[in-house]
Amino acid sequence: MKILVLVKQVPDTATQVKIGANPKAIDTAGITWIVSPYDEFAVEEALRIKEKRGQADVVAVTLGPDRAKEALRSCLAMGCDRAIHLNDPAWAEADTLATAKALAAVVKQESPELVLTGRQAIDDDMGAVPAQVAELLGWPCAYWIMEEAVDGDGKTARTGRQVEGGLEIFDVPLPAVLSAQKGLNEPRYPTLKGIMGAKKKEIKDVKAGDLGLGAETPQLSVVALEALPPRPPGRIIQGDVPTAVKELVRSLREDAKAI
Amino acid sequence: MANAFWCVVEDDRKGAPKKVMAEVIGEAARLSGGEVEAVWLTDKATDEGVKQLGEWGARKVWLLENAAFAPYRAEVWAPAIAELAKAQSPRAILAPVTSRQRELMARLAARLDVGLAADCMGLAMEGDRLIATRPVYAGKLLAKMAWAKTPWLATLRPNVFKPADAVPGRAAAVERPTASLPAAALKLVERREEVSTGLPELTEAEIVLSGGRGMKGPENYVILEELGGVIGAAVGASRAAVDAGWRPHRFQIGQTGRTISPKLYMGFGVSGAIQHLAGMRTSKVIVAINKDPEAPIFKIADYGIVADLFEVVPALTQEFKRLLEK
User: Fold this and answer.
1) Which pTM was predicted?
2) At what angle do helices B74-88 and B99-112 cross, to 10 degrees?
3) Are the beta carbons of B189 and A171 separated by less than 8 Å?
4) Is residue B132 within 8 Å of A95, Cβ to Cβ?
5) Which of A214, A220, B203, B236 is the most exposed place for a label (fewest CB within 10 A)?
6) Could you report the per-residue pLDDT of B244-297, keeping only the tens digit for each?
């Protein structure tokens, strides 16, 4: 069984993100880059499927600039067998849909039985790529999965999809796209052996032309990034607990009209 | 109509549109000068549901009623809406942020080859183009975004947009277009309902109480649930509390959990790590209760009390009970 895992490199969650000199982009100086956390769940799930089945070809795929290779190295260190790096200036302005088109093209070329990815990348938080890749391929998709089990002959995946108020268990025929929600699993840390081994694994560079694609007009573009409006200064309510609580409740009702 | 703003209906699966639709319809009316149409895919609509959409301001309801629409499966829904959109050419298609609309709208955007702005917190017409304001990096920054062509697709975050007032007697025309329905690929095995806490859903709640590491253990969340029961609040948790296994992940607020914008957020024993603040700093009023006066959450709080939450929470419950019984 071949599994493609789509990952994105994003700033670490602890990063204080700042607007760059170009107001449409962030200042990338000093940022620690990581594999988007939801994508790590997808990598982990792919590796578990491989371990359970005894064999599988697990391929990490990313679209991004040169630095995104580090994200692929992390996936290889976790245990992915090889990696594909979609790296071309044609994709520098790629929006969600253009990204999905490039990823769908590489999926078509590789024709895996399963595509796993995170529910959203924690930079632009759009959360659209998994569904769009599925749509462009004409494949089914299970969103925000909390559990997954591929059957023995690799024809169906039983998935638990998180919805408001519960979990919907679906049988999804393969090939399909599954998007991982937190809670699906606990991603492993790469071992030293894994990290050393990752250096010898293949990372294939792919250009837009290799997929028969050119530069796409972005369908949605950033006009400008803005800082959040500053919050008005707050007030620490003094006094013993009964007094402070009474004053807090009064303030919330009468001043803030919040309750 | 080519100028219409469409609102994709999220319903309660029992034939009634969810309350959040008043916000989507209200915003669509504001942006379009009243050219609002609802698109409702359901296995069973009710007359009351259609009436409700009309009273909120939908001039027309495109009602696609078919058993094939339940349970929700994107591979059936997306082609049906796309076909109708191609025939009717709406100017925009809006939907609330819910688990299924997130997937459906993304598929629809790919099918129509247009942009989707997900999880918008603001929409505004600038001349004849629509500008979306949406949080990025889990709300550490805002991005203003614009579309290359229509229809403009967007999902709207609950609790942010002003809901439409229901005008009794205002009614929508109902159209029942036929749709070609592809066979469903996904087969529903079962639906596991969560044990209901009786409290509102986290992303929809107007008031959210959040318990952090200061809660000391899973057994103590019951005091927040009691308070939540009194004031009608949802109860969430910080990543530290979720990672410690005290609460299931669906209750996590922050960058790798839910991003919320309630009218009132109250944090108890929440220190305010940057990734938690990212998930709740767009709340209208923020209250912080923490023993540590240096906790970062106090920097963005409107009101703070430096005290032991185990003293404050019962006192708050008593005080609200006393006031609400009056």
Assistant:
1) 0.93
2) 50
3) yes
4) no
5) A214
6) 999 999 899 998 888 899 999 999 999 999 889 989 998 999 999 999 999 999
CA distances from B270 to B228, B266, B298 (A): 17, 9, 10
Do B33 and B138 belong together in one domain? yes
Q: How many domains does chain A have?
A: 2
| ipTM for this prediction | 0.94
Encoded amino acid at B33, one letter: G
Given phi > 0 = left and psi -120 to 50 = alpha, else beta, which region is A184? alpha
Alpha-carbon B262 to chain mean position: 10
**Residue B31: how many other CB atoms lie within 10 Å:** 19
Is residue B103 included in any domain, yes or no? yes
Residue-number span of the structural domain to which A244 is assigned = 232-259
Encode A182-215: b = buried (16+ Cβ within 10 Å), e = exposed. Answer: bbbbebeebeeebeeebeebebeebebeebebee
CA distance A80 to A83: 8
Question: What is the per-residue pLDDT across A152-202, written as a single tens digit (0 to 9) for each?
Answer: 999 999 999 998 888 999 999 999 999 999 999 999 999 999 999 999 999
Q: Which of residues 137-166 of B touch A (CB under 8 A)?
A: 137-149
CB contact under 8 A, B113 and A219: yes
Distance from CA of B250 to the nearest CA of A (A): 9
Which helix H or strand E contains A4, and what residues bound it? strand A2-7
- HSE-up of residue A116 (Cα within 13 Å, Cβ side): 32
In chain B, residues with a C-beta closer than 8 Å to the C-beta of A246 are: 319
The chain A residue lying nearest B143, using CA atoms, is A225
